[in-house]
Amino acid sequence: MENPFIFGEPAKGEKFIDRKRELERLRNYIINARNVIIYSPRRFGKTSLILKVLEELKGDIIPIFIDCYSVTSEKDLASRLTKKVLQHYKGKEIWYAVKKLFQNITPKITIETTPSVQIEISYEGVENWEEALDLPQKLALDKGKRVVVVFDEFQELAKFDNLLKLLRSRFQHHDKVSYIFIGSKRHLMEWIFKSKESPFYNFGAHITLKEIPKKEFEIYIQDAFKRGNIKIKEHVVDLILSLTRCHPYYTQRLCFELWYVGTLKKVVDEKDVEKTLSELISDLEDSYLLIWESLTPNQRKALLAVAKGEEDLFSGEFLRKYDFKSPASVQSALRKLVEKELVTKIGEAYKVSDVFMEYWLKKRFLEE
Question: Which CATH code of 3.40.50.20, 3.20.20.70, 2.60.40.1470, 3.40.50.300 fits the domain covering 19-208?
Answer without folding.
Answer: 3.40.50.300
